[in-house]
Design brief:
Chain A: It is a peripheral membrane protein. Chain A: InterPro entries: AP_beta, ARM-like, ARM-type_fold, Armadillo, B-adaptin_app_sub_C, Clathrin/coatomer_adapt-like_N, Clathrin_a/b/g-adaptin_app_Ig, Clathrin_app_Ig-like_sf. Chain A: This is Adaptor related protein complex 1 subunit beta 1. Chain A: It is found in: Endomembrane system. Chain A: One of its GO terms (biological process) is vesicle-mediated transport. The complex is a heterodimer of chains A (951) and B (418). Chain A is an alpha+beta fold and 951 residues long. In chain A, strands 1-2-3-6-5 form a five-stranded antiparallel β-sheet. In chain A, strands 9-13-12-11-10 form a five-stranded antiparallel β-sheet, with helices on both faces. In chain A, strands 4-7-8 form a three-stranded antiparallel β-sheet, with no helix packed on it. In chain A, helix 20 packs across helix 22. Among the domains of chain A are: 172 residues, Alpha Horseshoe (Leucine-rich Repeat Variant); 86 residues; 109 residues, Immunoglobulin-like (Sandwich); 111 residues, 2-Layer Sandwich (TATA-Binding Protein). Chain A has 40 helices and 13 strands. Chain B is α+β, with helices and mostly antiparallel strands. Chain B has three domains: 146 residues, Beta-Lactamase; 127 residues, Immunoglobulin-like; 106 residues, Mu homology domain, subdomain B (Immunoglobulin-like), CATH 2.60.40.1170. In chain B, 17% of the residues lie in helices and 42% in strands. A nine-stranded mixed β-sheet of chain B has the order 11-13-9-8-23-21-16-19-18, with no helix packed on it. In chain B, strands 2-1-5-4-3 form a five-stranded antiparallel β-sheet. The radius of gyration of chain B is 25 Å and the shape is globular. Classes of the chains: A alpha+beta (951), B alpha+beta (418). At the A-B interface, helix 1, helix 4, helix 6, helix 9 and helix 11 of A face strand 4, helix 2, strand 7, strand 9 and strand 11 of B.
Chain lengths: 951, 418
């Protein structure tokens, strides 16, 4: 190894690299030579030594590497420094802690201001790689000075170095629009680089910083013009490069369609393009389609529809439909093109055409129905579920214009059980529609399909829909007509657009894998828990206010989002058979139940929550609402019961009734599609009620409210349906008092007073959970007789006792006593012991559990001491004692006092076993629940005749 | 950064692997094979394939898949560009890039790959520098090596890596100093049934072969630089000069390199030098179809069209074709249904044509798709965009070099729909 022959040296090094792992002890003998070579007068040998050493992944060797590496990082020769910079990244990969301890990261940061551009580039590359495994560390802390250094280095380093530097620049946030512009100006020349990766990285920087430039600037326009040619050039490269470029262009045209609006032709498909390129080109063609170029696009699409590749042909046919929906003026031509294609009788073309024609009908109702006849001719050739479902939808929708609609649908019905669910659902709906339109002739048909769907099917969706129709038809055919034949919302063509916040994030990731998958890196990059979300910089500049109105059309703000298609999970939308509509993009997690896990969410789980959902929810304030939802509850879930009673400073707790907490927001509008619910619980003269404040913060009218409680510890349940008399129009608020009883199903909750509620309206079902104050459960006859009190007091074992203090309650014994009595806590006796007032009190819960208390009031001391004893029904005393054993440990925290007394008191008939049953399970009159309890609902015909209708 | 590289031949064998960091198991390629199986043709294998722990980025060239494995978020274009660079380097080293050649030169291949990446970072990708480090194999050297037992590793240090012009090695000496520039333009076009142009664009390149002593500084100017509004330069070109004066000023790499590539977009009118008249018809009733193609010149600026080859993928239903060409030779492969007609030169007085019948499967309905005609041709001494080099000057060295400029127009993806 100590040879001077470079060739031999290289070979020995190569050998070492490969075998060091298997024979680490032997490899260590070579260390000395490496160290020596690191001081060789020849810079290339120094570099080679440090490079090779980094490749030997043996811990012992890495220890010896540190000193030579430190020297090489400060070497006088740039070639050595540049190699050493990469070596730091290597070392970090092997032993990250070592690198940090040795301070190499700081040295690496210093190299960013090196005089040699190659060194700068490699330092940036190494830092970026290290930063990726250390998302939290602020390694690439950029400031205007270092940015300037990077920009200078950019012009002189190798093409690969330019990529690293540009990627690094893209993560910088300029102070103002001037700085952004000057960076853009210096990056623009990179658009002419021969290396496409450099070009795309430059495009990323420009797209991002452009966001900060005012649209009135001349420079803005110039930049837009400059962006088009390099993007087009990327498309003449090798197919693999084209593919990546096209995926990115797809993002760019969504963000700034003006860049490529004149370049439609370059996206025309060549017959020998690889299929992945063809499909991407087609996608972009549709995005660029406008009134100006639609004729050309249609001619092309028609051409593609005759190609060989089936996938491509299908997509081309679909594209024609999308053009029709997007460019209204072209709809007629599109329809006639589709008809031409149907005439070809090529099976898969016909099927695709029918699917898209259905969408066209949705967009332009009552316009192109003349083609139905042609479609019907091809009924028999349809063998794909989607096409069959589309055709059935058309037949059902236009049943009144198709003379033999009943025959057609009947023919489908014959093989009902062999159809896919999609077709079955459509068939069911279509026949119901037909029945509503032509009731006289089709009664048998509808009965047949309803019984097929409800009795012979295992599919719950189908069964439920069957029952819903059945009940709807049997109770009120007029209402059924209103519901089933209601005017359907129009569909829009932009349904496959990427959601704007995601798009903005993806723009920051142009040129990366994220841009190829159209997903944020957090969604797929391994170990990216702490990936920092990138976002476009806000627009700054003097003309901000002036240009904000025109910002709307380009940015596609949320307000412009097509809200016309209800989400897939939309209950009512589903009933109205809108599920054929294209899938809707958007945050799907709006109705996630707020559980007590919120505490966790706010704490440890916050990172993941923010990571995954904050983007979708459109801001980082996502975590805030749950906190505001239950302020009191989070702080003192149970103690709320007593703590609130003593909360005398607030003045709310009047003597006339039990304490009422102020209303808290339970369900923020953001999580419930615009419905905001706030409320509180009260107890007045023996009845519990839930006072609700419903506010409609959406733009549409809300109606059909219903409420359900999940099973809970005390069997709380609504005593009457939620009655909102008039539909709730936007920005309207209605106050409702919902009477509750305690005869519902019981299941122990954690925390004990947790209540999970489901609220339904015409838009969706929303879930939230809240904590109710326990004192609403204190019954009026909670006054125990003295003798009884004494006996019970003695009987209660020590385990059932808890003691705590209530702070800052400057009241005398009488005042306390009267206040508590208002909340059904009765004073049985009063003693004075050593100047302290002792109050003995009792209360009874709705489930007949007695709780006894001793309250010590010291004059002059604002703190009250409370001893609580829980007296269970005798039969359960044993198990209760057992359950209380562990509560004793935290008696000092008032939040957890006597509550566990109820833990096991209600194992009525093993109800606990049904814990995983669905949330809407109680016995209250949910309109959708009815039929399930009736194995054989009355037929619609009989009910129309006035027969009794099931509950 | 790039973790590993696998070379896979079209029958699905991994015949070479190289790891720059820790070793990634071969089994990662199973995901690639799956995708390969799904794609009907090799060309259709998607270039980016996600696997649970890695990402596979591949290019397909010379019937070999070059599959790079990455583990972190790396710009895919960076990887794909690099892979293409690897292929170019192999081609440069061995003349052709095929499985056989790679296997034969496996030592050089490993040496080259080792020099190209360090820990996944590109190290030396310029072919000049690489060739200094590792000498390309020649017959003479192979013979010498076998006799003397030496290898191809250069005994010089790559001094070029240290200089400010990394693309050029120092101390270059030639007895004949010459600089040749080839302006090559390719026409990509789609022509529709009726003969009108749907889209046409020109992809141009200027390839250079510069063998000059010392450190020459060249400038190249054009008669009509306005044409070049969408250009990509070799790193040696000084961009500022181009911006301000529209002059290419550069210190050239030694040997062959691509000085610039440019793109003349569809918006500028592109002259189409050739037309195709076709009549391909199937009849529903008969099992015979008619086939007739005539090729003729159009807007050629008086130059001859040479090397014309017409290919067309016929529909599956075509069993055989019986055709007579007026010139050249034709073949029809009944298995792949590929018709190929080597026309040669086009004589404007006597236009070449290919006529005859196609026999179709008896009883089958007529094919749904229309065959697309693919055209290849060459025109010497013409740059169809009209680009012309004005002059080439050399500074920095005393001698007088020999200079040459050549123009050529070729068909790129030139397709005629029927």
């Amino acid at each position: 190894m100590q040879t001077d022959n470079l060739e031999l040296k290289k070979l020995v090094y190569l050998y070492l690299m490969n075998y060091a792992k298997s024979q680490p002890d032997m490899a260590i003998m070579a260390v000395n030579t490496f160290v020596k070579d690191c001081e060789d007068p020849n810079p290339l040998i120094r570099a080679l030594a440090v490079r090779t050493m980094g490749c030997i992944r043996v811990d012992k060797i890495t220890e010896y590497l540190c000193e030579p590496l430190r020297k090489c990082l400060k070497d006088e020769d740039p070639y050595v420094r540049k190699t050493a910079a990469v070596c730091v990244a290597k070392l970090h990969d092997i032993n990250a802690q070592l690198v940090e301890d040795q301070g190499f990261l700081d040295t690496l940061k210093d190299l960013i201001s090196d005089s040699n551009p190659m060194v700068v580039a490699n330092a940036v590359a190494a830092l970026s790689e290290i930063a990726e495994s250390h998302p939290s560390s602020n390694l690439l802390d950029l400031n205007p000075q270092s940015i300037n250094k990077l920009l200078t280095a950019l012009n002189e380093c190798t093409e690969w170095g330019q990529i690293f530097i540009l990627d690094c620049l893209a993560s910088y946030m300029p102070k103002d629009d001037r700085e952004a512009q000057s960076i853009c100006e210096r990056v623009t020349p990179r658009l002419s680089h021969a290396n496409s990766a450099v070009v795309l990285s430059a495009v990323k920087v420009l797209m991002k910083f452009m966001e900060m430039l005012s649209k009135d600037l001349d420079y803005y326009g110039t930049l837009l013009k400059k962006l088009a040619p390099p993007l087009v050039t990327l498309l003449s490269a090798e197919p693999e490069l084209q593919y990546v470029a096209l995926r990115n262009i797809n993002l760019i045209v969504q963000k700034r369609p003006e860049i490529l609006k004149h370049e439609m032709k370059v996206f025309f498909v060549k017959y020998n393009d690889p299929i992945y390129v063809k499909l991407e080109k087609l996608d972009i063609m549709i995005r660029l389609a406008s009134q100006a170029n639609i004729a050309q696009v249609l001619a092309e699409l028609k051409e593609y529809a005759t190609e060989v590749d089936v996938d491509f042909v299908r997509k081309a046919v679909r594209a024609i439909g999308r053009c029709a929906i997007k460019v209204e003026q072209s709809a007629e031509r599109c329809v006639s093109t589709l008809l031409d294609l149907i005439q070809t009788k090529v099976n898969y073309v016909v099927q695709e055409a029918i699917v898209v024609i259905k969408d066209i009908f949705r967009k332009y109702p009552n316009k192109y129905e003349s083609v139905i006849a042609t479609l019907c001719e091809n009924l028999d050739s349809l063998d794909e579920p989607e096409a069959r479902a589309a055709m059935i939808w058309i037949v059902g929708e236009y049943a009144e214009r198709i003379d033999n609609a009943d025959e057609l649908l009947e023919s489908f019905l014959e093989g009902f059980h062999d159809e896919s669910t999609q077709v079955q659902l459509q068939l069911l709906t279509a026949i119901v529609k037909l029945f509503l339109k032509k009731p006289t002739e089709t009664q048998e048909l509808v009965q047949q399909v309803l019984s097929l769907a409800t009795q012979d099917s295992d599919n719950p969706d189908l069964r439920d829909r069957g029952y819903i129709y059945w009940r709807l038809l049997s109770t009120d055919p007029v209402a059924a007509k209103e519901v089933v034949l209601a005017e359907k919302p129009l569909i829009s063509e932009e349904t496959d657009l990427i959601e704007p916040t995601l798009l903005d994030e993806l723009i920051c990731y142009i040129g990366t894998l994220a841009s190829v998958y159209h997903k944020p890196p957090s969604a797929f990059v391994e170990g990216s828990r702490g990936v920092v979300h990138k976002s476009l910089p806000p627009r700054t500049g003097s003309s901000e206010s002036a240009e904000s109105p025109e910002a709307a059309p380009t940015g596609a703000p949320p307000g412009e989002q097509p809200a016309v298609i209800p989400a897939q999970g939309d209950l009512l939308g589903d009933l109205l058979n809108l599920d054929l509509g294209p899938p809707v993009t958007g945050p799907p997690l709006t109705a996630a139940p707020v559980q007590m896990g919120a505490v966790d969410l706010l704490g440890g789980g916050l990172d993941s929550l923010m990571g995954d959902e904050a983007e979708g929810m459109g801001g980082t304030n996502f975590a805030a609402p749950p906190a505001g939802t239950m302020p009191a509850n989070l702080g003192a879930p149970i103690g709320g019961g007593l703590g609130d009673l003593f909360d005398l400073t607030s003045g709310v707790g009047s003597l006339s009734g039990s304490y009422v907490a102020p209303k808290a927001v339970w369900l923020p509008a953001m999580k419930a599609k615009g419905l905001e619910i706030s409320g509180t619980f009260t107890r007045q003269v023996g009845s519990i009620s839930m006072d609700l404040l419903l506010t409609n913060k959406a733009l549409q009218v809300m109606s059909d409210f219903a409420i359900q409680f999940n099973r809970n510890s005390f069997g709380l349940a609504p005593a009457a349906p939620l009655q909102v008399h008039a539909p709730l129009s936007p920005n309207q608020t209605v106050e409702i008092s919902l009477p509750l009883n305690t005869v519902g199903s019981v299941m122990k909750m954690d925390p004990l007073n947790n209540l999970q509620v489901a609220v339904k309206n015409n838009i969706d079902v929303f879930y939230f959970s809240t904590l109710y104050p326990l004192h609403i459960l204190f019954v009026e006859d909670g006054k125990m007789e003295r003798q009884m009190f004494l006996a019970t007091w003695k009987d209660i074992p020590n385990e059932n006792e808890a003691q705590f203090q209530i702070k800052d309650c400057p009241l005398n014994a009488e005042a306390v006593s009267s206040k508590l009595q208002a909340s059904n806590i009765f004073t049985i006796a009063k003693r004075n012991v050593e100047g302290q007032d002792m109050l003995y009190q009792s209360l009874k819960l709705t489930n007949s559990i007695w709780v006894l208390a001793e309250l010590r009031v010291q004059p002059g001391n604002p703190n009250l001491t409370v001893r609580l004893l829980a007296a269970p029904p005798r039969s359960l005393a044993h198990s209760l004692a057992h359950s209380l054993a562990h509560t004793h440990t935290d008696t000092h925290t008032p939040t957890h006092t006597h509550t566990h007394t109820h833990t096991h008191t209600h194992t009525r008939e093993g109800r606990l076993q049904h814990q995983e049953e669905e949330i809407l399970c109680s016995k209250s009159p949910c309109p959708l629940e009815g039929p399930r309890r009736h194995p054989r609902p009355p037929s619609p015909a009989s009910s129309r005749a006035g027969a009794a209708v099931g509950a | 950064m790039i973790h590993s590289l696998f070379l896979i031949n079209s029958s699905g064998d991994i015949f070479l692997e190289k790891h720059w960091k820790s070793v990634v198991s071969r089994s990662v390629c199973d995901y690639f094979f799956e995708a390969q199986e799904r794609a009907t043709e090799a060309e259709n294998v998607p270039p980016v394939i996600p696997t649970p722990h890695h990402y596979l980025l591949s290019v397909y060239r010379h019937k070999i898949f070059f599959v790079a494995v990455i583990q972190t978020e790396v710009p895919p274009l960076f990887v794909i560009e690099f892979l293409h660079r690897v292929v170019d380097t192999f081609q440069d080293y061995f003349g052709v890039c095929s499985e056989l050649v790679i296997k034969d030169n496996v030592v050089v291949v490993y040496e080259v790959l080792e020099e190209m990446l360090d820990n996944g970072f590109p190290l030396a990708t310029e072919s000049n520098i690489l060739k200094e480090l590792i000498k390309p194999p020649t017959i003479l050297r192979t013979v010498v090596n076998t006799i003397t037992g030496s290898t191809n590793v250069g005994d010089q240090l790559p001094t070029g890596q240290l200089s400010v012009v990394p693309w050029r090695r120092t101390g270059v000496k030639y007895t004949n100093n010459e600089a040749y520039f080839d302006v090559i333009e390719e026409i990509d076009a789609i022509i529709d049934k009726s003969g009108s142009t749907i889209t046409a664009e020109i992809q141009g390149v200027i390839d250079a072969c510069v063998k000059l002593t010392g450190m020459p500084d060249l400038t190249l100017s054009f008669m009509n630089p306005r044409l070049l509004d969408d250009v990509s330069f070799h790193p040696c070109v000084r961009f500022k000069r181009w911006e301000s004066e529209r002059i290419l000023s550069f210190i050239p790499p030694d040997g062959n390199f691509r000085l610039l590539s440019y793109h003349v977009s569809a918006q500028n009118l592109v002259a189409i030098p050739v037309y195709v008249k076709h009549n391909i018809s199937f009849r529903d009733s008969s099992s015979l179809g008619r086939f007739e193609i005539t090729v003729g010149p159009k807007q050629t600026m008086g130059k001859t069209i040479e090397g014309v080859i017409v290919t067309s993928q016929m529909p599956k239903g075509v069993l055989n074709m019986s055709l007579t060409p007026s010139q050249g030779t034709h073949t029809f492969d009944p298995v792949t249904k590929l018709l190929s007609w080597d026309v040669g030169k086009i004589n404007p007085q006597k236009l070449p044509s290919l006529k005859g019948t196609m026999s179709l499967q008896a009883g089958a309905s007529k094919p749904d798709e229309n065959p697309t005609i693919n055209l290849q041709f060459k025109i010497q001494q013409l740059a169809i965009s009209g680009l012309k080099v004005n002059r080439l000057d050399m500074y920095g060295e005393k001698y007088k070099p020999f200079k040459g400029i050549k123009y050529m127009t070729k068909a790129g993806k030139f397709q005629v729909r029927t």
